[in-house]
Amino acid sequence: MSKGVLYLVSTPIGNLEDVTFRAIRILGEVALIAAEDTRRTATLLDRYKIDTPTLSLHQHNERQRTPAILSRLNGGQCVALVTDAGTPLLSDPGAYLVRSALAVDLRVESIPGASAILSALVASGLAEDQFTFVGFPPSRSNDRKKWFKSLNKEQRPLVIFEAPHRIVKCLADMADTLGNRKIAVCREMTKTHEELVIGPILDAVPSLSSKKGEFTIVVSPQNDERIKPTNEQILSEYNHIANKKMTRRDIIRQIAKNHGLSARSIYNVLEDKKA
Question: Which of 61, 80, 147, 210 could make a disulfide contact with 30, Cβ separation 3.0–4.6 Å?
Answer without folding.
Answer: 80
